[in-house]
Structures are given as structure tokens and as C-alpha cells.
Amino acid sequence: MDDTDAWAGLLRVHAALVPLLDRELQSACNLPLTWYDVLLELNSAPERRLSMGELGLLAVVSRSRVSRVVDQLAAEGLVAREANPEDRRSAYATITDAGRKRLREAAPVYLAGIKRHYTDHLGGDAAIVARGLERVLAAFESS
After folding, report:
1. Which one of 21, 39, 77, 100 is most buried, counting C-beta atoms within 10 A?
2. Three-state SS string across the chain, please?
């Protein structure tokens, strides 16, 4: 194996599994994976809210797409947009009670999909893969 094999494998797994998990979530819960990801990040955040900039850094969707996804979630009543009183140019996204309910309903489908399509195939290597990826992220974040 050369240095690019792990990278190429990560890209191929991502390309295969993201659309599959998206289809499963949409079919079972009528919730796109991008929506699930934004709801998950908001639910995990302090006060269950993030600035749009913070959400753009944390969510898997592109920074340019975050605002559009938040608008879609707000139209469904799953997220509320709040003005930032300290900076009128920025806004916060906050998960609503309805958004938390949808997230809880979708979580079993999401987690089962990850297990069935990803971690079950890694066996005992799942923790090793997770630690390796955490080191890569830590190096990126510290640079």
C-alpha cells in the first residue's frame, strides 16, 4: 500500500455511503442527510444554537449551502433564525422543539445505517480508524 491508498479509500467510502444514508433517511423519515447533520450540530451546541459561521465550520454541508439548508429547516419549523444583537450582519440558527423531535425520530435510522454500512465492516478496526481520523483533524485544526 502506498500513502494515497488510505485517502482514496476514504473518498470512495464517503462517495458510496453518503448518498445511501441520505436515501435511507429520506425514505424512512422524509429527512435529507444534510438536514439531519445541521440538526445534529445544533442539538449538540451550547444553548442548542450556533452562528451561521460556526455552523458552516461544523456541518458537513458546504459553508455556502448552510444558509440555504437553515432556510429550508426554518420553513419546516425545525430551526429558528435569530438576529445576533451584537452584530447585525450575522445570525444564529437554533433548533426548535419540533427539530429536536425529528432528530430523535431519525437517529435510529441514521445510527443503524452507519452500523450496517460502515462500522460492521471495520470490525475491531473501527476504534483505530476513529483515532487516526481524529489525529488528522487535530493536526488540521492546530495549523
Report:
1. 39
2. CCHHHHHHHHHHHHHHHHHHHHHHHHHHHCCCHHHHHHHHHHHHCHHHEEEHHHHHHHCCCCHHHHHHHHHHHHHCCCEEEEECCCCCCCEEEEECHHHHHHHHHHHHHHHHHHHHHHHHHHHHHHHHHHHHHHHHHHHHHHC
